[in-house]
Amino acid sequence: MVTVAQFTVAVVATALKQVPGRNRLSDYSKLTGFPAPNPIYHFDIDKAKPRPYRPFRWEYHQTMSLKKLEPDWWIELEFTYRERIDQRKKLYAERGKQVIDELPGSRAASRECMEMVIQYVCQRYPNQFHYDNWTGVFSNNILGVKVDINTVHPLVFLLEHVPEDFLITQEDLETGLYVLRAAVSCSAVGWNISQKIGRPLHQIHGPVPDYKEKMAFSMDRFFSKMPCDKPIQRGSWGLEVGEPLFAQADGAEWEHRQTQDPDLSLSNVYLRVDWQTLRRMPKSRAIVFNFKALFTPITDFRREPYIPKLVLKVLLGGKESIMEYKNTRHVEHKVIPALKEWAKEQEEIGLVPKDWKERTLNEDPFYPGWKDHYRMHT
To answer: What InterPro entries is this protein classified in (predicted)?
Structure first.
C-alpha cells in the first residue's frame, strides 16, 4: 500500500522530470530542419588541423560559388584556437566598434545566434564545451572558464569563445533589402565593421569587382528566399606576407602591400582562405554570415597535386580587375617562379599528367588525395 508521503514524493519527482530547465535552449536542429552535427569524442584541440580549403577555380569568374553546408562543419575548431581567441580579445580592446557593433533592434538576433553556436559546439565537441540548461552557465574546458550567458553580450560571448566572425543581416521592411545590423569581426583585411554596419548587401560588397553588374540582384533575391534548412558555404582567398588577421589600409601593416620586397622569403608567404557559411536563423529570420581566416604556408602547395599549376593559371590569366582586388602583386615575384618549378616537378614525377589542362578540380574546394595529408576527426 502506497502512503500519502510516498505518493506525494512520486508526484513531485514526476513533475520535476517534466519541467524543462529554466535556461534550456531551443532545439535549433528541429526548428531549422538542418541536422545536428555528429559528436567528436576524442577531439584534441592542440592537434586538430583545419581542412585544406583550396577554393581555386578556372576559368576564373567572379561568382559566389555556393555549396551546401555539411552539418559537421559549421563551426570548425583547430590548433590555433587559443591564439586566435587571445588575438580577438586584444583587437576588441584596441579597436572597439571596428570589431563589434550593433544597431537598435538587433539584440534578439544576436542572442539567437549565440544560442545556436552554443548548442552546436556542445554537440560537436562534447568534451570541450558544456551548457547547463538549468543555470545557463556555459563551460569552456579549453580555456578553463565558465560564463553565465545571461550576463554577457551575445557578440562579446562569440568573440571570446568561438574563433569565427559573425555578421547578422536583417530585412529592411521598407526596401526589402537585407542590411547588416550586428556583427563581430576580427578577420578583416582592408575593411572593418564600422564601415559596413547599417548597409545593404550591394553597398557592403561595393569594392568587389562585377558584384553590382553580375551578382547584386541574384544575391538580394537569394537572401529573401533562403530557407532555414539549406545553409550554404563558400570560400575566398588571397596571398599574404605572414598571417595578418586584421589589417587596415591606414595602418603600418599595409605598407608592404604596395611594393615587392626583393628579400621576401617564400617561407613567409601564406595562402589565406576565409571559409564562409550563410544560414537563416529560425526565430528572428535574420541571416547570419560567419567565417574564419585560415592560413597555410604557400610551400605546402608543392605536395598538393594540381594546385601549383592551377594557382599559376589564375595569377597569370585571371581578369585584371579581380586580381587587382585580390592584391597579390606584392608576393607574385616570389610565388610565380616557385609555382612554375613545382608544377613542372609534379609533371616530371607523374603526380600530374603533362597534358592536363587547368580547370576547377572535381574535389573542389580540396584536391586529390587531401585526406592523406590531413587526418580528419571522427
So the answer is: HODM_asu-like (IPR021848)
